[in-house]
Amino acid sequence: xxxxxxxxxxxxxxxxxxxxxxxxxxxxxxxxxxxxxxxxxxxxxxxxxxxxxxxxxxxxxxxxxxxxxxxxxxxxxxxxxxxxxxxxxxxxxxxxxxxxxxxxxxxxxxxxxxxxxxxxxxxxxxxxxxxxxxxxxxxxxxxxxxxxxxxxxxxxxxxxxxxxxxxxxxxxxxxxxxxxxxxxxxxxxxxxxxxxxxxxxxxxxxxxxxxxxxxxxxxxxxxxxxxxxxxxxxxxxxxxxxxxxxxxxxxxxxxxxxxxxxxxxxxxxxxxxxxxxxxxxxxxxxxxxxxxxxxxxxxxxxxxxxxxxxxxxxxxxxxxxxxxxxxxxxxxxxxxxxxxxxxxxxxxxxxxxxxxxxxxxxxxxxxxxxxxxxxxxxxxxxxxxxxxxxxxxxxxxxxxxxxxxxxxxxxxxxxxxxxxxxxxxxxxxxxxxxxxxxxxxxxxxxxxxxxxxxxxxxxxxxxxxxxxxxxxxxxxxxxxxxxxxxxxxxxxxxxxxxxxxxxxxxxxxxxxxxxxxxxxxxxxxxxxxxxxxxxxxxxxxxxxxxxxxxxxxxxxxxxxxxxxxxxxxxxxxxxxxxxxxxxxxxxxxxxxxxxxxxxxxxxxxxxxxxxxxxxxxxxxxxxxxxxxxxxxxxxxxxxxxxxxxxxxxxxxxxxxxxxxxxxxxxxxxxxxxxxxxxxxxxxxxxxxxxxxxxxxxxxxxxxxxxxxxxxxxxxxxxxxxxxxxxxxxxxxxxxxxxxxxxxxxxxxxxxxxxxxxxxxxxxxxxxxxxxxxxxxxxxxxxxxxxxxxxxxxxxxxxxxxxxxxxxxxxxxxxxxx
Length: 817
Known about the structure:
Elements: E1 4-14, E2 23-31, E3 37-46, E4 53-63, E5 76-84, E6 87-96, E7 101-104, E8 107-110, E9 113-114, E10 117-121, H1 135-147, E11 152-154, H2 162-171, E12 174-178, H3 184-188, H4 202-216, E13 222-226, H5 235-247, E14 253-254, E15 267-270, H6 274-281, E16 292-297, H7 308-317, E17 321-326, E18 335-337, E19 343-345, H8 374-383, E20 386-392, E21 397-402, E22 412-420, E23 423-430, E24 440-444, E25 458-466, E26 478-485, E27 529-531, E28 535-539, E29 544-548, E30 553-559, E31 562-563, E32 567-572, H9 579-582, H10 587-595, E33 601-610, E34 618-627, E35 635-645, E36 648-657, E37 666-674, E38 679-686, E39 699-706, H11 707-710, E40 723-726, E41 728-732, E42 738-743, E43 748-753, H12 757-762, E44 774-783, E45 807-816
Parallel strand pairs: 10-11, 10-17, 11-12, 12-13, 13-14, 15-16, 16-17
Antiparallel strand pairs: 1-4, 2-3, 2-5, 5-6, 7-8, 8-9, 18-19, 20-21, 21-24, 22-23, 22-25, 25-26, 27-28, 28-29, 29-30, 30-31, 32-37, 33-34, 34-35, 35-36, 36-45, 37-44, 38-39, 38-41, 40-43, 41-42, 42-45, 43-44
Helix pairs in contact: 1-2, 4-5, 6-7
């Protein structure tokens, strides 16, 4: 309890020599974190005879102990000495943590608090030393886990180096300690329960569990014992569980394939989808009173996983759902150099090995060198211990939820800002109140937080940061954040009295209004048009737009005498398959086999040019059909280009399905721009990539990057780099010339990469990729979600792309001289 704890001691004393029996003294002293001795004892005993052993028990009561948890890893130091005839024969020291683990009321409780396991699975793996991992490497992993709000590690699928537990004790990580037992291969060749049902193997099964518990039972970080992984189920597992409980009844027992057997204390599954998880939480799918745990979920292979948000909305909803461990922590790969001396990461088949599992072990939240994937950034956001629940603008209060199970928020500071169109216009600090674990609070907002810009998209952002240095991060490290849209402000009154400052505004001078719009209404000079029956040219010698009737394309665009395009605008349906697209259900295979989405050709059905007039733009309209050779058409596409000036083109693209299609990868267009347009600025979600079912970790703002920086070098090349909810994006060269794209109706996705989707599809490793010699700009109305189907569920239905009717995509292209 919080008022008293008891440290039960059992000393196993063996005489390995042939000395005569002597009296001995065992002394035990317990010290707190400050080095103060808080308790101790001495016990005299008759030492065992040569070759014999004895057990001595004792107990140390401790008043008002500082309890250990992953959030507050309070440790004591126990020093034990064995003395005889005034001589110290042996001295040992142990980290001691006081904490209590219980299963009751269908929940997991630690120190009297209901715990949610925000975990990952971890293997020993280094890109340079393979399965040997140094202590320094382990410590870096622990620090990264703490920085990304992970509180639990399952030691899949074997007990780890003792140094791992020492680090987990000190930094604060709960551990599910797993027996070194797996017979997965038997499932491929017959019955994966073959060994677990064979009496001849029982002693071996039990021995592995027994040695794990004997070694690790004094580790405060260990809160679960696990019987192994994917070894079927049988009487040998039951014998393991019984032996563990004989040795240690203070921790629950876990094993996934045990299903609902009484030998385990929690129900566990792998890769349960969100709908089933919801039913399990509500006890509709399983009336078992025990807690439910996802020992593996959200397979993080490659560009993924998706739907972490949906998983945790359900987990927080139901007390019975105690959380889960993402599969898995790191990409397993060996670093090599190619003939040019470039580093790259290898996987199955790269060494002439057969059989192999390809890149299936490249399945982590971090790259082999521990650079975080965007999947880890998403996980950090989902696991964050402080959650912004919104702002009550009427009363001026911010609502937050402390998701810590054991600690308050005293170690954090809250920094707020207001952004208008992504630009910061105000900022300050908030005073955090005392907030109990798993409790809600409201924070009064200062008046300055309401100073917003009229006629602009305003957002309020709050960041929760460490006040002081910790063992795992420096002061200022962002632990959690939230962003909420602000109410719209009334438009500023224009000099003409029109608050909207619309096109019919009669102001003669721009500076008469603070809205920034040009009210001069100066009309562009009439576009000169030349039409030879195939090519339509609009503009003059320095600024010219060229359309090609035969190809149905925007063929060229010259501004200030420099070519703006390197490749024509064209529909893009294919994306380089992610590992999850390839996955168990084989979506990418269906894309190829059923409709040839990776090799679509575009046939022009109609191309029409309509000259502009005094009050209307020139229009070039094209109707096409997309189909692969020997396949029925998939989509009809209509392009409508509207040109009122030689430096701006309005584009409307309409996609109309022709046949029932599988899940489409994307609906968008692609432009090839000169390679010199390598600087990218945008207003939208960022700073990192995001997709429809993995977007919680990005926030609205203005961002800048290079094309190379936007590329994500997944070990096996695949779709990457998309930025969601883009309002505008600008690609430019060193002199500021380039192309801007702005939304019309609603935000869009973009990516700007040095490689085409076809190149990303074709190559096995990033160092093999050949640059396009252009900046590949992809603009998407929508892309399919990611899911975790490489070894888990496909994207949820709401994130699949299966259009039942026409889909229209509108945007504006503007040249920058």
